[in-house]
Structures are given as structure tokens and as C-alpha cells.
Automatic annotation (TrEMBL):
Domain of life assignment: Bacteria
Major subcellular site: cytoplasm
Keywords for this protein: Cytoplasm, Iron, Metal-binding
Protein name: Iron-sulfur cluster repair di-iron protein
An example Gene Ontology molecular-function term: metal ion binding
UniProt-listed CDD domains: Hr-like (cd12108)
Coiled-coil intervals, chain numbering: none
GO cellular component terms, A-Z: cytoplasm
Cell location: Cytoplasm
Length: 170
């Protein structure tokens, strides 16, 4: 897995000062593309670890299934942003985006629950003693994915969405 493209939002410019269109582009490149790339890899790795370590009591049962569920929910969420919310935001600030933003915030809460389930299932992404390289890589990748998803949610909830939430729209 690779890190998001830092050139999409230059570090010398505070993210709060980036124009809305550029911020949306940053989210699409650094987060949406990364999630779509990383989750299938993590699912395959979770399936491999489950196959190889089927008899190990430390194996988190159902991890690949939880990752598939997470990927499905996240894909639907990102599609709604890409097809409905972000184009409306690019056109102009409007009260018309207030309801979609509320829905996205609720779905972000759901993603937070998925994160908690992943953390619980994997003991905070801590591989068991003597874990193989694949198991260790899986947990390291999960930790990276969760950090990126939390950063993604924070950026939308605390930087992008407030630009469209006036007291009359909130």
C-alpha cells in the first residue's frame, strides 16, 4: 500500500485555506482512490491469513467478511459523495446540500462503528506473538487504513462540510 499523494494538497498551505474545489480533489485522490486500492488488498490478505491459520485461536474470526462489509458501505458512501454531494458543492454553496451533508455525517458515524469493530476484533491491530509476515502486514495495513479513514472523515466533517453549514442550513 502506498501513501496518499501529498502533492494533492501542499503541506505549506493549511488545509482550511485550500479552495473548496481543490479540497474536494484532495479528498478524491488522497482518500477515495486510496480506500478503493487498499481495501481489496486487505481483504485478500485477511483471507490468506484465515486460510493459513484456520486452527489458531488468536485468528480473528470473520475479519475478511467484516472488511468486505466495510468496503461495500464505504463504496456506497463515496459514490454518493462523488455523484451527488461534491458536484453540488462545486456548483455553489446552497441550502440544497444541507440534507446530503446530514446523511454523510450519519454514515461517517457508521464508519466509526466499523472502525471500532475492526479494532476490537484485532486487539487494536496487535498481531499475536509469533505472527507470520502476512498477519503482521495485515494488521499494519489495517492500522494504516483506519488512520486514513479517520483523517478522511475528520477532513470532511470539520473542514469541508462546515463551509456549507450556515446556521440557517444546519
Amino acid at each position: 500500500m502506498t501513501r496518499p499523494n501529498p502533492a494533492a494538497a501542499p503541506e505549506e498551505v493549511p488545509v482550511a485555506d485550500i479552495a473548496t474545489g481543490a479540497l474536494i480533489d484532495h479528498i478524491l485522490v488522497c482518500y477515495h482512490e486510496a480506500h478503493r486500492r487498499d481495501l481489496p488488498e486487505l481483504i485478500l490478505l485477511a483471507e490468506k491469513v484465515a486460510r493459513v491459520h484456520a486452527g489458531n485461536p488468536a485468528l480473528p474470526q470473520g475479519l475478511a467478511e467484516l472488511l468486505r462489509e466495510t468496503a461495500g458501505l464505504l463504496e456506497m458512501h463515496m459514490k454518493k459523495e462523488e455523484l451527488i454531494l461534491f458536484p453540488a458543492m462545486r456548483r455553489a454553496p446552497s441550502a440544497l446540500v444541507a440534507q446530503p451533508i446530514r446523511v454523510m455525517r450519519e454514515e461517517h458515524d457508521d464508519h466509526g462503528e466499523q472502525i471500532r469493530r475492526l479494532e476490537t476484533m484485532t486487539d487494536g491491530f496487535t498481531p499475536p506473538p509469533g505472527a507470520c509476515r502476512s498477519w503482521t502486514a495485515l494488521y499494519r495495513g489495517l492500522g494504516h487504513f483506519v488512520t486514513e479513514l479517520e483523517d478522511h472523515i475528520h477532513l470532511e466533517n470539520n473542514v469541508l462540510f462546515p463551509r456549507f453549514e450556515t446556521p440557517a442550513h444546519a
